[in-house]
Amino acid sequence: MKLLDALVEQRIAAAAARGEFDDLPGAGAPLPLEDDALVPEEVRVANRILKNAGFVPPAVEQLRALRDLQADLNAVSDRTTRCCLQARMLALDMALESLRGSSLVLPREYCRRIAERLSERVGNLTMADAGSQ
Predict the structure, then answer these.
(1) Closest CA to 109 of 121, 94, 96, 119
(2) pLDDT classification of 9: cutoffs 50, 70, 90
(3) Domain membership flag for residue 15
(4) Which of 54, 76, 104, 119 gives the lowest tally of CB atoms within 10 Å of its CB?
(5) With bands split at pLDDT 50, 70 and 90, how would you rate the model's confidence at 61?
(6) What is the CB neighbour count within 10 angstroms for residue 72?
(7) Exposed / middle / buried, residue 84 (Cβ in 10 Å: 0-12, 13-18, 19+)
(8) How many domains does the chain have?
(9) Are 86 and 118 a contacting pair, CB within 8 Å?
(10) Helical H segments across the chain, by residue range
(11) CA-to-CA distance for 15 and 22, rounded, in angstroms?
């Protein structure tokens, strides 16, 4: 098989050297790559139908929301708002992990307690802000 591969590569290189690929349609343009090449064929059809109807998979929506929250977090300096955003990011991240079906590095109970503490901090910060006014 290696001999056949070497022969094919040699012929392709020779044709390229002669300029036989220079005037092909779409030359120099990026290839239209399918974003679902790793998705099983039976799922691809359903995904394309949903995509054409304007829907995206829940994981994609959550990844977009996480990206937007991260951008918001980078732009905010207020502690109360930052804690709220971090709690929302944690909840979205946990939901995304459950969609993936993979196990979390941290146990779910631990993540739930972190989310509760962040919520408590937000409540305490909000009360402190109201008291200072």
Answers:
(1) 94
(2) very high
(3) no
(4) 54
(5) confident
(6) 15
(7) buried
(8) 1
(9) yes
(10) 2-17, 41-52, 58-75, 79-100, 108-131
(11) 10
**Over residues 16-43, mean pLDDT:** 79
- Whether the Cβ atoms of residue 77 and residue 60 lie closer than 8 Å to each other: no
> What is the C-alpha separation between 63 and 100, in angstroms, rounded?
12
Question: Is the sign of the CA dihedral 66, 70, 76, 77 positive or negative?
Answer: positive
Q: Cα–Cα distance between 18 and 94 in angstroms, integer?
A: 56
Residue 115 lies in a domain: yes
Residue 19 lies in a domain: no
Residue with tokens 């109360």: 80
Question: What is the DSSP secondary structure assignment for residue 39, as one 8-state letter?
Answer: S
Distances (CA, A) of 110 to 90, 102, 116, 122: 11, 16, 10, 18
Q: What domain range is 79 assigned to? A: 58-131
3-class DSSP state of 118: helix
Going by the DSSP 8-state scheme, the letter that residue 53 receives in this structure is: T
